DNA sequence: AATTCATGGGTAGCACACCA
DNA sequence: TGGTGTGCTACCCATGAATT
């Protein structure tokens, strides 16, 4: 497929115009380029998010969002109100090509004597179609040698790869929902803005689904509203270059803060390890090796026999801390560390998920990856395969499974939300459910050796022989 | 009745190891 | 180096119970 050119000033006007001074058009283009280069990827979800969030920030944010969309070559799906764009069928939502968008923006930027953004039409942005989707629509079944994008019977779009396998594509909605907020690193300001925007526009039913009511939203966003009136008001008077510089600076600051958090986490773990080492060496010096043995940290016991892990009927009857602590035979996290952190007055989830454990998990990619890592760190495969989230069986077909300890599920939810604030409980539970499901499938495909009657009898004979 | 939630099953993409 | 098998996981759909 012929790749559509990347719409930016380099392509349109050449490098020589990049540093031209005094032209508002070039300034605007340069800023679009800045936006493009500032970690905003070309996915439609990012642009959708950008547009959505900037709708709360007045016409300047709107303008920047359009420039960014233009820079990444996104197709804007909009309903023209007082449009200055080429005439469209009245009342119809239309697709706006990046080229047309850019040309129109350029024309308005060069209008003499107008403050930037003032001439921007009142667009009601509906959505941004992905570049690939547009390309697929444009060239469906036409050009030779293009990827085939077949429509499956169920309506799922798919393309065929070189080896004939069909690759499923996420729907646009899915990509926005599941990927949109992961690749984009939110600033606290953005979080507030998004919350404000989302909550103000979401139906009450959806809000309830998120576990929030109007009062909660108001109280939660009171600070943001104050911030908005004070700070954003002053932002309106800033120049575009200043605004972009501020955004980039804030991003750098956030990166730096994240790095510091990682370092501090690592330091905590190091201190803990050192403490344990000192304690052990003291005990060895005192010749009390027997007493020291219980405190020696256990290595992850992935090879632990399944007899330790789960007796569902027993586990399902337990609901309290004791059940949880006994169930730790199913997991591998460190009890002594847990107690230490508890005494140190850390967050509740840190009682379950220690810094050490967190260190082994990938916190930087996606919420799902982090969730999976946490589950794998806390429990072994057999335990995951034999448990469910709630223990409730809604299907007659399904065999009842005991629930994982509720407070541990909560700990996972809070931990994931700490790293991915945009993720709801429901989403993370979905990840957990999927992981449990996958482990169960895996176990069914390849049952544990001890579950195999032959292997079991062999082991039994082996034990008798040894005795 | 519609919606939400939890679950199981099937399918397919991706990464990796292995082999000719 | 390219083809193939395998493991892991994502995605979709169907089902049924609970909830609104």
Automatic annotation (TrEMBL):
Query: GO CC terms for this protein?
Result: nucleus
List where Basic and acidic residues composition bias occurs: 137-154
Q: Where in the cell is it found?
A: Nucleus
Q: Where is this protein primarily located?
A: nucleus
Q: Molecular function (GO) terms listed? A: DNA binding; transcription corepressor activity
User: Where's the BEN domain?
Assistant: 343-443
Q: Which GO terms describe its biological process?
A: negative regulation of Notch signaling pathway; positive regulation of neuron differentiation
- Taxonomically, the superkingdom here is Eukaryota
Q: Which SMART domains match?
A: BEN
Which stretches does the entry tag as region Disordered? 137-165, 289-328, 440-467
Question: What Gene3D superfamilies does this protein map onto?
Answer: BEN domain (1.10.10.2590)
Q: What InterPro entries does this protein map onto? A: BEN_domain (IPR018379), BEND6-like (IPR037496)
The UniProt keyword set, sorted, is: Nucleus, Repressor, Transcription, Transcription regulation
One Pfam family in the UniProt entry:
BEN
What is the name of the protein in this document? Answer: BEN domain-containing protein 6
